[in-house]
Amino acid sequence: MKSMFAIGFAFTALLSMFNSIFEGRVVAKLPFVPISWLQGLSHRNLSGDDFTDCSFIFLYILCTMSIRQNIQKMLGFAPSRAASKQGGGLFGTAPQLTK
Q: Signal peptide: which range, if any (predicted)?
């Protein structure tokens, strides 16, 4: 529980700091035009009609989704593979009793 709050706080602080620095700037050029329901996020606060331009928030979300697990493992907050396979998570099913 503590690890979730620590990681969440760190990523939220980074988001607000970088969002103010890169507001209105093109940070990447996408090799594709995003599907219509992602264009609002990928082109957020950018001027122009070139939807291959990428805003900071879209790139941040993609990076956060891809590196969050690795950072948790590196800092020792994530459970080991063996524990996650056997545990079943918070809402996992209880072990079956055999007679």
A: 1-28
